[in-house]
Amino acid sequence: MMRFAVISPLALAACAPPVPMAEDLIPDYLGVETTVLDVDLVQFNVAMTKALSERDVRNYADCAAAAYTLDRGFSFARHLRTNVYKEGGVWSADAVYTISPNLPDGLVKMDAEVVAAACQESGIPMV
Question: How far is it, in rounded angstroms, from Cα 27 to Cα 123?
């Protein structure tokens, strides 16, 4: 003889993950640490919570690089590398860029003014 248990919808709802609230989806930017490695070589360590993907923390690093580039009176940066980590809900990255007044060689380069405008439009802090 088979027996079936009746499970109430309330019991099932208690097991379901909570529905995200709007504030759960708004990234919390924890800051930028800047290290000058050489005259035109800079490393940015950034950290944030509530990132939806690795791309969010990479964008934060790009925004930091754009702001730094403009603050130094330069117009362009070239991305060299970014290492992204996630630990306990905190996303972090260390990213290295060269900065220059002229468009640099290389595959991944950015116009600092264009990136800074996109960061401002997206609400990503640049300091």
Answer: 10
Q: What is the tens place of the pLDDT at every residue in 79-94?
A: 999 999 999 999 999 9
What is the value of pTM for the model shown? 0.81
Strand partners, 84: 93
Strands of 109-111's sheet in order across: 28-38, 41-49, 90-100, 76-87, 109-111
Give 51-73 pLDDT, tens digit per residue: 999 999 999 999 999 999 999 99
Residue 51 main-chain phi, psi, to 5 deg = -70, 140
- The Cα 42–Cα 26 span in angstroms is 28
